[in-house]
Design a protein that fits this description.
This protein is about 35% helix and about 20% strand. It has ten helices and 14 strands. It has helices at about 65-75, 90-95, 100-105, 115-125, 130-140, 145-150, 235-250, 265-290, 300, 310-330, and strands spanning about 20-25, 30-35, 40-50, 55, 80-85, 110, 170-175, 180, 185-190, 200-205, 210-215, 255-260, 330-335, 340-345. The chain has a seven-stranded mixed sheet with strand order 1-2-3-4-5-6-7.
Length: about 350
């Protein structure tokens, strides 16, 4: 059996500055766009074809990112147009500029079915007010009513404004096993889930490159959450299954091009680390639920930092995801007491 490397390897000494690119392989360029949060960047990629460029992920909505794209267009495209745009998944830092880019170049958007339609629904939901479905979900988890009321009128960094261009009204579906020929290279579509419903990853065997989006990140762990829109979902089960699938598909000499942090080698080590991380989180849940607990009572044990504002709701969704996976394994049972759900380890 081949032994896993003990550390990840980062082959690039620097990261691209605003409006700049780094060529990571022939015809494959890495760029970055800013994000207005503690995670202050997203990695995007340009793939050069014979007659045009493919953009992989688009950055968050807003004028700052649009202006940086226009700088890239002027300086980096070698007089070729953009002829297609791929979004790995629905989240606004990946899809936020899709409408602008598609209109600018009259270029089609390529996404998986589940991601495209979830992105459209998400855009509408972020502009709407709350609902009893959402309130009930958080109350059952133990969130105090005053906390819900304080958050009801707040806006996250991802909330769209009236000036933002909407997601394109048509798309081309990407499915597991599809092959995209871009220049001299063939890219295989591999679908993961857990962080989002049908996350698109792209693998080029010839170049030994894997564009992982948020499915594999080298430093941080992607949020895997249950949301009020699907309160009985089990996303962590899909996340773990996806990572085990990728362990068998992606050779360890593949350069991983993630959406955050830096490109790296050591995919099998990182996948195992991510699997182990969530297994450890589930053991914490089991240890804490020897007496019945509300989901919100688990957060201080699962997260070793102060949680404020929208981070509370993201953390709560992730905590519930771990509970649901344990329920699927028959290790935790749910009861109801008044307005709240309680969770207890099965002995």
């Amino acid at each position: 059996m081949n032994q896993l490397p003990s550390i990840l390897e980062y082959p690039f000494a620097s990261t691209p500055g605003p409006g700049e690119t780094i060529e990571v392989a022939p015809g494959v360029h890495w760029l970055r766009m800013p994000l207005p949060m503690s995670l202050n960047h997203i990695n995007l990629y340009l793939l050069e074809g014979d007659e045009g460029w493919t953009i992989v992920d688009t950055g968050i909505r807003g004028e700052e990112t649009s202006k940086l794209w226009e700088q890239i267009f002027a300086d980096k495209l070698a007089d070729k147009p953009v002829d297609q745009i791929i979004c790995t998944h629905m989240h606004p830092d990946h899809t936020g500029q899709a409408g602008f880019l598609s209109d600018y170049w009259h270029a089609p958007l390529l996404m998986s079915y589940g991601e495209y339609y979830q992105a459209r629904v998400m855009s509408f939901m972020m502009q709407e007010g709350g609902s009893w479905h959402m309130s009930d979900f958080f109350i059952r988890a133990g969130v105090a009513m005053e906390t819900l009321e304080a958050m009801r009128d707040s806006r996250s960094s991802f909330t769209p404004s009236a000036d933002d261009k909407p997601l394109p009204k048509s798309y081309i579906r990407l499915s597991e096993g599809d092959r995209l020929n871009i220049g001299a290279n063939e890219w295989q579509v591999i679908i993961g889930n857990g962080h989002s419903p049908e996350h698109v990853c792209l693998y080029c065997e010839k170049l030994r490159l894997f564009i992982s989006g948020d499915q594999i990140l080298p430093v941080i762990t992607s949020n895997v959450s249950v949301h009020p829109t699907e309160p009985l979902a089990n996303p962590l089960l899909g996340w773990l299954e996806s990572h085990r699938k990728l362990m068998g598909l992606i050779p360890d000499d593949t350069l991983i091009l993630p959406a955050h942090n830096e490109p790296f080698y050591g995919v099998k080590l990182r996948l195992q680390q991510l699997i182990d991380h969530h297994e450890e989180r589930m053991q914490i849940v089991l240890d804490q639920c020897t007496t019945p607990r509300k989901a919100i009572e688990l957060l201080p044990h699962l997260f070793n930092r102060k949680l404020e504002d929208h981070a509370i709701f993201m953390a709560l969704g992730e905590g519930i995801a771990h509970i649901h996976c344990l329920q699927e394994r028959g290790l935790v049972r749910k009861t109801r007491k008044g307005d709240h759900f309680l969770y207890e380890t099965v002995t």
